[in-house]
Amino acid sequence: MLGLGIDLVEISRVEESLAKFGDRFLQKIFLPTETSYALSQSRPVAHLAARFAAKEAAAKAFGTGIGESLSWLDLEIGRHANGGPFLRFHAKGADLALSRGVSRSLISLSHTQTLASATVALLGV
Predict the structure, then answer these.
(1) Are residues 24 and 32 in contact, defined by beta-carbon separation less than 8 angstroms?
(2) Where are the beta strands (DSSP E) in 11-124?
(3) Do 122 and 105 form a contact (C-beta atoms < 8 A)?
(4) Which partner for 21 in 25, 77, 80, 94 could form a disulfide, CB atoms 3.0-4.6 Å apart?
(5) 10: which strand partners?
(6) Which active-site residues does the annotation give?
């Protein structure tokens, strides 16, 4: 294991950011595929919050946080055909994963009425 990260987000925090900044918030944090999926769900903000937590958890697993080395849009949370989540790296995220020897990642998402959580493990060969 090369890194492990966990994050917990209050769903109301994401809801407030969405209400205040609208599409600007969505476009800064999420890729179109992530937004499209979340908005198709019965509780879109809970799904957005879980993806927000997953990106934070991935950044923690890398030990960089979100910033110069890794941006929100360098990480994508997708879904396998069976519904399970996966982590995809783009741009700086792909470069960082390659330089760190990441060959695989594991991700778990969860949410309640008020909280969303994510755990990310980065694995090497």
Answers:
(1) no
(2) 75-79, 85-89, 102-111, 115-124
(3) yes
(4) 25
(5) 115
(6) 60, 111
Residue 41 CB-half CA count within 13 A = 15
- Are 97 and 47 in contact by the 8 Å Cβ rule? The answer is no
**3-124 is classed CATH 3.90.470.20:** yes
What pLDDT, on the 0 to 100 scale, is given for residue 8? 98
In angstroms, the CA 73 to CA 92 distance is 9
Residues 16 and 107: their CA atoms lie apart, in Å, by 26
Q: Look up the pTM and report it.
A: 0.96
Kindly report, residue by residue over 29-59, the tens digit of the pLDDT: 999 999 999 999 999 999 999 999 999 999 9
* CB 10, CB 56: distance < 8 Å: no
Phi and psi at 86, nearest 5°, equal -140, 160
58-75: per-residue pLDDT in tens?
Answer: 999 999 999 999 999 999
